[in-house]
Write a structure and sequence with these properties.
One of its GO terms (cellular component) is plasma membrane. By secondary structure, the protein is mostly helical. It has a domain of 42 residues. 84% of the residues lie in helices and 0% in strands. The protein contains two helices and no strands. The longest helix has 40 residues. It is elongated.
């Protein structure tokens, strides 16, 4: 097992290498994620509606 002080110093060195996103980048990517999630939910809603309508028509025709 390594020396805990050495480990802490290595962790600090690695944290110093991190490039944190700017506030503008965070806001932009958040908005993009929300838009994509909305588009995906609309798409799956329409697909579900089409399948439901198709099955209802098929069952109404058969039964």
């Amino acid at each position: 097992m390594e020396n805990p002080a050495k480990f802490i110093s290595q962790v600090r060195a690695e944290v110093g290498k991190i490039t944190w996103p700017t506030r503008r980048e965070v806001i932009t990517t958040t908005i993009m994620v929300l838009i994509m999630a909305t588009l995906a939910s609309i798409f799956f809603f329409l697909v579900d509606l089409a399948i439901k309508s198709g099955l209802a028509a098929l069952l109404g025709f058969v039964g």
